[in-house]
Amino acid sequence: MVERLDPATAAILNTSGLVSASPMGMGLYRIEPVGKVGSVRTSTVQLDVRPKGRLGLSRLLFLLSYAGEQGFRDQPVDAVEHEDLWSALAESLAQLAERALGRGVLQGYRTVDESLRTVKGRIRISEQISRRPGLLVPLEVSYDEFMEDIPENQILRAALERMGRVPGVRTDVLSRLRQLTGKLDAVTRLQQGAPLPAWRASRMNLRYHPALRLAEVILRNASAESGEGLQQSAAFVVDMGKVFEDFVGAALRHALAAFPGELRLQYGALLNEAVRDSDRLTVRPDAVHFLGGRPVVVYDTNYNAGSDAGATLDADHYQMLAYCTALQVPTAWLVYAGQGEMKLRRMLNTDIDIIEYPLDLSLPPSQLLAQVADLAEQSWGEVLRAARG
Prior knowledge:
This protein is α+β, with helices and mostly antiparallel strands.
């Protein structure tokens, strides 16, 4: 695609990680995707790169959140479906935050470390001695305080502020985002680029769960810049290959928990005999299932391998053959995003089978997870058949 851009907008596109904009002269730029999906918006341009199959926002958010740092979640992330990604994100966050804050701002206990002239909570003896040897006051103390400045509210405020900086958000939605942010004025603002604070799901913060799931996705995948001397811009960029790999790994680990053994993700194995480390060739499949400390089946994912006819014949199959050889396992499963039927390929002059297994990402979350459960059951059945000889 060729577009006329100003240099500042071209620079924003190039730093977004979504596309590359190469100058062609006379203000024209060639814009090409770089293997990721999402949207970049400035005050003058919006570019969208959609997942294959036009995956809806709700499904994308489900995949992103399932293997998130908060661990397994059995509920999908609620989202308003809209042709424009930014409108969908802004409206979804506004709705979920309104529900979360509808009964007031959540409060919780937080441990506070302070220097005080009176005793409150407990005295931190080691800090008192190291910081103020021989002095009685001020005292280094720690105490628990019931307050609004807790991780849940910090995460929600950061997401509301970030979406409020996205150019082109409808005025009424922007007003709602700002009103919601105002309710969290007493909450500490998270620093740009800082890790998200950890929170723990409980009955006390249950009403916050949907809003927090979406807020975390926004904070991990979206950026918004504005201010003096800067062109207002926003980017939501995800690597679908990584998203798919993380989702399959998390879902497969959960499904295989019903069977003996242990699933290890990103397991490294040696492919050749070598005396020096520099001569070693290694392989790293996405997942390997172990039984009694021995690998019995290997899995690998490829988001882009699927077509209407099944998995494409490419280097993935040679790679899977190398995995089986290095790990001495008879069966490898190539999991790809797409529709179609499971297909077995017997490798010539070997006892190795490569099984192509499609996952239809357009299915509702419950059905998608049922497909992964079927993958676990089918692959475990192959392990038992191989063991019987």
